[in-house]
Amino acid sequence: MNYQDAHRLALLNPYRSVAKIFDCREGDILVGIKNVSSIPNTLMHKLEKTGFALHTIDKKSQLAGRAVDTELINPITGHYMSGSSSGTALNVFAGINDLGIGNDGGGSVLAPAMCVNILGFISRLIEEDRVQNTKKNTDGMIVENSLGFMARDRKILLKAIKDSINIEAADECGTVLSDREYPGIRSEVIRVEDAFKPRNELTEYLKETLKKCDMLILQEGPVDLNGFGDSLFGHFDERTRQIQKDSGKGYVRVCNTAEATAMVIPGKELGCATLLMCESVREKVSRLLKTAEYIEDVHDELIERYFLDVESYFNEGYQV
């Protein structure tokens, strides 16, 4: 999508996901940033030197970064958007921005990306000396946020990773553990821990597993399609806990609590992705990026034709 169309769409704000708009130029790589003070402006200043330009400040999920945004609607499913970087994900999905920047405490970048089938990436290495925002999550765990990116185009995502933390794909994949066989990837298939165990237990399991390998790969989702993935809702009783589990948020909710670097690559099924995780060690992240090359991200032709047709948003209504 060219800049003029993306800017027109931002001004229209069809999904109520834009909080503020900035002028850019044709040829800029358009960026949206979640409207939170914990994302340091040094990251955007760094990216501006390599062709990225701030286009929008994006609406955040209401009230303390809730995991489901009850104010924004997923345009594919009609359900509530996954939070809390929900507005940022929507603006990338709709073509308003090429890159979205959010923060992730317990799936707040990875889950919104998954629920609209775009790419997502988080790492403690992004502005690691400047991100110091910690808070207690709904499970009573005190955690620090990771910063992360969302994009439709893998080249743009990889450019943002390279330009922000100076890491590119390695020459080899290294030691890979996985939940199944993946074409082109040599891995040891293991039985992974139940993805819906309590978050503190799953966090410790993931930390210990990632110490033993270069990365862990598994399938995740569908996110917020068959359930309501929010611990505020799920804490009441067994019935609400089951509905929360049915949301499909498993390992994505503990990647950050385990201090991992993670990438989600959308698959053919709605809200589903291949999830790659590693320790936030530069050499391991480089091997993760190499391994990700063997996993194709699926672009749904019908969805893109329907939602990226800018003129359909501006069709005039009934004329007297």
Features:
two-stranded antiparallel sheet, about 325 residues, eleven-stranded mixed sheet, 11 helices, alpha/beta, Amidase signature (AS) enzymes
Give a description of the structure.
This protein is of the alpha/beta class and 320 residues long. The chain has one domain (3-313): Amidase signature (AS) enzymes, CATH 3.90.1300. Helices cover 28% and strands 23% of the residues. The chain has helices at residues 3-12, 41-48, 62-65, 86-93, 110-115, 154-165, 199-211, 231-234, 238-245, 282-292, 301-307; strands at residues 18-21, 29-34, 52-58, 68-73, 80-82, 99-104, 119-123, 134-136, 142-144, 146-151, 176-178, 188-189, 215-220, 260-266, 273-279. The chain has an eleven-stranded mixed sheet with strand order 1-3-2-6-10-7-14-15-13-11-12, sandwiched between helices. A hairpin with a 6-residue loop joins β4 (68-73) and β5. The radius of gyration is 19 Å and the shape is globular.
Give a nutshell description of this structure.
This protein is α/β, with parallel strands linked by helices and 320 residues long. The chain has one domain: Amidase signature (AS) enzymes (Alpha-Beta Complex). It has 11 helices and 15 strands.
CATH superfamily: Amidase signature (AS) domain
The helix/strand series, from N terminus to C terminus, equals HEEHEHEEHEHEEEEHEEHEHHEEHH
Quaternary structure of the protein: single chain
Range of helix content = 25-40%
Work out the number of β strands. 15
Helix count, per DSSP?
11
Q: The CATH topology is what? A: Amidase signature (AS) enzymes
